[in-house]
Amino acid sequence: MDVKQKIETLRNELREHNYSYYVLDAPVISDYEFDMKIKELQGLEAAHPEFHDPNSPTLRVGGAVTKNFETVVHEHRMYSLDNSYSKDDLEDWEKRIQRILGDVPVEFTCELKYDGASISLTYENGALVKAVTRGDGFQGDDVTTNVKTIRSIPLKLKGGYPPKFDIRGEIILTLKGFAKMNQERIANGEEPYMNPRNTASGSLKLQDSALVAARPLDCLLYSIAGASGLKTQFEVLEKAREWGFKVPSIAKLCKSVDEVLQFVDYWDVHRHELPYETDGVVIKVNNLQQQEELGYTAKAPRWAMAYKFKSEQVSTVLHEITYQVGRTGAITPVANLEPVLLAGTTVKRASLHNADQITKLDIREGDTVFVEKGGEIIPKIIAVDFTKRNPDSEPTKYIEYCPECGTELIRKEGEAQHFCLNDMGCPPQITGRIQHFISRKAMDIEGLGGETVELLFKEGLIENYADLYELTVEQIIPLERMAEKSAENLVNGVEASKKIPFERVLFALGIRYVGETVAKKLAKAYKNIDALMAASEEELVAVDEIGGRIAESVVQFFSEEKNREIVERLKSYGLQFSLSEAQLQNQSDALKGQTFVVSGVFESIGRNELKKLIEDNGGKVASSVSSKTSFLVAGDNMGPSKRTKAESLGVPIISEREFLTMVS
Ligand code: AMP
Ligand code: ZN
Question: In whole angstroms, how far apart are CA 465 and each of 142, 471, 508?
Fold first, then answer.
């Protein structure tokens, strides 16, 4: 097989696997096999730029950066929908329709109303060419680069499609995906996102598409514009599914408004079992010919109607406000409620976010409050029922001292949360740090769980994560619920963690804002812990994608004697504090001492791959042009300001090809 054929075969295979995994939810091969095939294809594509394909499955990983999202006029306007809230509303709508169409039978399709960000995708000859946000309905933003990273959106279609059409859908985050993102943020010491809808729509406007690729976004499709030959909305959904799009099978064809109402009632109850959020049902006249006759008002089609579910609210008594202390010392107030049934689950607690939120709503212990299940997994309090307030009640006084250790709390300017700064003496912070250290993505210590950490701490056997490495089987056996076997497993698990690679050890240390990705970047740039510990804030900021907040936090962490001591101890036990030989060997010194700025979009190589090449060959990547820049590597659509700056400073501007010859 020649190379071109090999590349094509791999691309087709990967497309098919991608479809099975992300659209059908039924993977055929393992993640590992999939990754191997992607790597093979990446290698071939890098070696053969002449076979570049803007819709290759390798582009799913992102890497290209969009500085300004271009405005694009929609060829077919994107309308809004009229809303209805009752049976009467729907019956009135049906009457209006019948008045225009005359006395003919009308069928309806019912679909769920997906709650995300609407998107219009243009396909030409079966390939995705453009993705545009709704904007004001007449024109939106071109977010093609970012949208290409969403795995369930086909870049190439399966047979039988029209030569050119627009398809509309909603970009969403599943509840699971959203919860996972938030867990990671909390683990990194960042504030969680508020709800899936805003997070999904915010994701589309991120500049770095690699960040978009890392989010578990999904896209559900519901209409087609500009295709001829289709007769009904139901057929539209079926065809879209055939061409490879993700179209929920929940849609139903109804012969009467009564049937529509059955669908609505059913989903009003069962929507809480769906993997994503829905805020209602969209009802459409099924026959496209009839749709055309009905036409549009100034803002919405006359042939469609959204039926909004009432967001479920209940009232209950707030017994007590308690305060949780996180690993980073952040304080979260929690409302402890009289248990109440809401949206299918019993609710006992609700998050109160922070002091401002409590003041704004004037929430007090003993109040009767209204609770709603919004986008968040944890329900929230939306208001107080003031008619039921006890006249003797007093405004809530936010705590001033840590409930766990008694230290006075601090609220830094610009931060919503209060913090306990007693990081070495505050129990939940101590155990929280150890629990982070042993977690799966960090040191992944088998045989040791969060509760055991608390037990070991309570028994005075550990005070920090370095102490784990001195635990003996004899010390552990006497503890509650511990037997010889489990004690041995624990000690063996700790021993095995000494092989965990440097970047994960760095993540495990629990430096605020140093998440998995940042830890990888830092490990790569500094190669060992001593170099990193010696780095100044200025030097750190010069590392690509390391911002001021991270740099400050890293320097602060290593400036503390107690942290340096712990690192020294961990080193003495044999943990990995530098990149392995294998990791280093992949690298050369060809670009040693040179600093590169990379700008624009490249033909044969992704931006991130290009940066990796620079770093692997001993060079540094910086984010802005300065007198210290050795070369500016210029791709298509490079920012004009970078060019001007480079020219004025006399920094040589080189092309992608010139760069590649430097490293080959
Ligand atoms: P609104 O923004 O409330 O006017 O509602 C209109 C929006 O609902 C459309 O722009 C779509 O983005 C969204 N939507 C979600 N699900 C559907 C669906 N099944 N059919 C049509 N529109 C939908
Ligand atoms: Zn404390």
Answer: 48, 11, 10
Ligand 1 site-directed mutation target among 77, 85, 170, 233, most atoms within 8 Å of CB: 170
- Which residue's CA lies nearest to atom 14 of ligand 1? 113
Q: What lines the ligand 1 site, CB under 6 Å?
A: 80-81, 111, 113-114, 118, 134, 170, 222, 282, 306
Length of the chain counted residue by residue: 664
d(Cα 570, Cα 423) in Å, to the nearest integer?
A: 19
302 and 322 share a domain? no
pTM of the model: 0.63
Ligand 1 atom, smallest distance to 306 CA = 5
pLDDT value of position 313: 82
> Is the same domain home to 101 and 163?
yes
Looking at residue 113, which CATH number applies to its domain?
3.30.470.30
Concerning whether 113 is annotated as a catalytic residue, the answer is yes
pLDDT tens digits for 596-655?
A: 999 888 888 888 788 888 888 878 888 788 888 899 999 887 877 888 888 888 899 999
Domain count of the fold of the chain: 6
User: Distances in Å between the alpha carbon of 223 and those of 23, 74, 150, 247, 469?
Assistant: 17, 15, 19, 10, 59
Express as a percent the part of the chain with pLDDT over 90: 62
Query: Out of 352-356, 374-378, 447-451, 542-546, which region has the weakest mean confidence (pLDDT)?
Result: 374-378
Q: State the pLDDT at residue 129.
A: 95
Nearest CA to ligand 1 atom 17: 113
Q: Using DSSP, state whether 314 is helix, strand or coil.
A: strand
**Residue 624 CA to ligand 2 centre (angstroms):** 40
State the ligand closest to the CA atom of 409. Answer: 2
- pLDDT tens across 7-36, in order? 999 999 999 999 998 888 888 888 888 888
Within 8 A by CB and 6+ apart from 117, the residues are 133, 134, 170, 171, 172, 197, 200, 201, 204
Q: Which of 76, 81, 172 has most ligand 1 atoms within 8 Å of its beta carbon, as the pocket-test mutant? A: 81
Residue 167 CA to ligand 1 center (angstroms) comes to: 13
Ligand sitting nearest the alpha carbon of 424: 2
Task: Match 């390391």 to its residue by tokens.
Answer: 546
Residue 219: alpha-carbon gap to chain centroid: 14
- The alpha carbon of 67 is separated from its chain's Cα centroid by a whole number of angstroms, namely 20
Per residue in 58-79, pLDDT tens?
888 777 778 889 999 999 999 9
At position 337, the amino acid (one-letter code) is L
Q: Does any domain span residue 640? A: yes
220 Cα–ligand 1 center, Å: 11
Q: Which residue has the higher pLDDT, 303 or 21?
A: 303
Report how far ligand 2's centroid is from the alpha carbon of 406 (Å).
Answer: 6
pLDDT tens for 457-497 read: 999 999 999 999 999 999 999 988 888 899 999 999 999 99
Catalytic residue among 113, 156, 380, 611: 113
Q: Residue 554: is its pLDDT beyond 60? A: yes
CATH number at residue 491: 1.10.150.20
